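In this supplementary section we document a worked example of the pipeline. Step one takes a protein sequence of length 455 as its only input; no multiple sequence alignment statistics are reported here. Step two produces a three-dimensional model, which step three serialises into structure tokens for compact storage. The input and output of this example are shown verbatim.
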Amino acid sequence: MEVTSSKKEIWTMGSYSLLTLAIMVGFMYLNTFATEVLLIPAATLAAALGIAKTIDFIVSLFAGAIIEKVKIGNKGKNQTWLYYGRWVLAVMILLEVCNTSTAPMVVRVAVLSVSYTILNCLMNLIQTGYYGVLAAVAGANMANRNAMSINMTRQSTVITLICSFIPTLVTVLPFGSWNYFVVALVFMIPMPWALGRISALADGKDPQVNKDASGPTITVGDMIGTIVKNPQMLAAFVAFTVMYVATYMYQSNYTYYFIYVVGDFTKLTVASLVAAVVGFVAAMIMPSVGAKLGKKNSCVFGFATFGIGLIILSFIAAKSWILYIICMAITAFGTYTYMPYMVLIFLDAGEYYLWKTGKDTRAIAAGLASPPMKIGMALGGTIGLMLLSSTGYVAGFTPDANWVNSFMRVTFMLPGIVFIVAAAIMAIFYRITDAEAAKYAKENAERMMANMPPQ
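The serialised model returned by step three reads:
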């Protein structure tokens, strides 16, 4: 198929990457803000966010059902959540990094954890709504969907480049403990505009909430059944869950590498800037490599590359932060090999199940790409903070060689091993090739056309 969507549609859908800019301060540096500015103990933070992430995961399972059943305003069921949710999201982004350091500990923990919970629960709905809008705007043309997904991935590399300055900004700006808040405010401003424009693209195309009780609805039972009864969906679900656990184990603690191992938090800006530039180059090159490898093998290659990079880093980067930069640059090429195809893996599994059984669960396939991230966020983030606490970390302490060695192992080597486990699961248990997926989709479409009643 050829791309039939206009450049305006493709670039507007890609502007969803501005949401990443809006949430990045809290997403990447919340643990650092909480422990270093709010002075919340790591174990307390792990417990509070563990509860919040569990709630977030539960909501992620209901996201499709909520969008199907809840009617807000007079717009389509998917675009509604982008149009109205953007304003609530903006408030939560700011509350999450609001300086409450002079308040009692219970207030500090409550404000952070409640805003974190609402923000992430709403993100489930906005993300699911976005993919619904994408489907409505792109239509049935898979080339349109691929073009929009790849364009968004590439726009995200520019966002990553901008975000690489966060460590310096939150250190050198003259607002003291409010630096995180100020940076979050500035980075958040483009987000409501972007989500509003994306929502507008779906005017007249996005279907209304289904009010027919006999019509198809999305429930938690449907999701669980789709996973358990479809071995290909189960393999993808488990592989991506393990990958996300590894991701959040690493991301929970890596900022402390620059604070306590390197001893200069501002050097994270240089590292992030280099990673962003390399990521931009990788995003231009590696999606094509991933297409040649096939969606399955692109994931295997990407997971394994990231894992090997982290393991090597754990042994050599304590000696030089330049070695850290080199290792992380290598992992970027693995990441952008599979990133544009993550959701498509789940859609292929849905096509396979319909082809094999005649039961159409494709409507919930894209939604199943979100829960693995939520499980990974809850488990990986909590495990990461607990491992940090087990090293003897206390805000402002002076590390010794033994602590550095322990920190490098729990922050980089262990997640690296988990990444390789995810690659092995994908390689062994997920068996749908791109050619087979195309066959399933083609034959499913032919069957549906044959069964359609005459007009």
